[in-house]
Design a protein that fits this description.
With 267 residues, the protein is α/β, with parallel strands linked by helices. It has eleven helices and nine strands. 48% of the residues lie in helices and 12% in strands. It has a five-stranded parallel β-sheet, sandwiched between helices. The chain has a two-stranded parallel ribbon with strand order 3-6.
């Protein structure tokens, strides 16, 4: 199992995004917070299941979270704060699995691929996510949400359907673009449909590296599903489409349909 719990100290920005992501994705969350649940932008809401530090003279909440975790993911835009830099140095010194993501150096999608690879390589189960605060780096909350959600979705799509379902007979393959979109929507778990519906355009395009391969294999594109290919050619007025382009078209249509029914709205 990869990432069974996400922890943080609840500060604004990266740490708050980590907790909200855990709730949205159905992952257990926790961690340590300062006495009185005091964070940089006020008092941390009771909806977050963090424990207060009991001993003012003991280790701070960040150090306690680092000790509790199997790995630490630090996310920022530009330089780290002194506190985050010290925490990252501690992780390095103790050979604790660690990854630093700087959105000034990589796009959100590139960063999501780095996170995906790191999580799989390190097999992190309890993940401490920390980094820049919204009060110092406006927009870092949204960057963190979009980036990690894409990384997590890619992890889940590594094997989205039970192996037995992959052996679909040729007469069960979708013959049209609409059939392919409907079939894919039925096969994806609800949480994955919601995730796709709330992705940005660049993230949807990036799904060709994960979900796209699955579509090509699942719908017989590697073996030459001529009916589906012809349907996609007619839909695009193209004379030729590569297998990955057909998969990308199916994914794009799926996303547009899901955005009508599965988009999260703030009430």
């Amino acid at each position: 199992m990869i990432v069974r719990q996400i922890i943080s100290g609840g500060q604004s920005g990266v740490e708050r995004a980590a907790l909200d992501l855990a709730i949205q994705l159905g992952i257990s969350h926790g961690g340590w917070v300062a006495p009185g649940r005091l964070v940089d932008d006020g008092l941390l809401s009771a909806q977050y299941r963090l424990r207060e530090m009991d001993f003012p003279d003991g280790p701070n909440s960040a150090a306690a979270n680092l000790e509790m975790a199997d790995g630490i993911l630090v996310m920022t835009r530009g330089g780290l704060s002194d506190e985050a830099a010290d925490l990252y140095a501690q992780a390095q010194a103790h050979h604790h699995p660690h990854l630093l993501i700087d959105f000034d150096r990589n796009t959100r999608f590139q960063s999501s691929l780095l996170i995906n690879s790191w999580l799989k390589a390190q097999q992190v189960e309890i993940l401490f996510i920390t980094g820049a605060r919204e009060t110092g780096k406006p927009g870092i909350y949204r960057d963190t949400m979009d980036c990690f959600r894409t990384a997590w979705w890619a992890l889940m799509m590594a094997e989205p359907v039970a192996p037995g379902k992959m052996a679909a007979a040729r007469d069960e393959l979708p013959r049209t673009l609409d059939e392919a979109v409907n079939r894919l929507q039925r096969e994806l778990p609800l949480k994955d449909r919601v995730t796709i519906a709330n992705m940005g355009n660049d993230e949807i395009t990036g799904l060709s590296r994960t979900l796209g391969r699955y579509v090509q294999k699942r719908f017989g594109l590697w073996e030459g599903n001529r009916d589906l290919e012809q349907s996609c050619l007619q839909a695009t007025n193209r004379k030729h489409l590569a297998e990955e382009e057909i998969a990308a078209l199916i994914i794009d249509r799926l996303a547009r349909e899901l955005q009508k029914t599965h988009t999260l709205r703030v009430l």
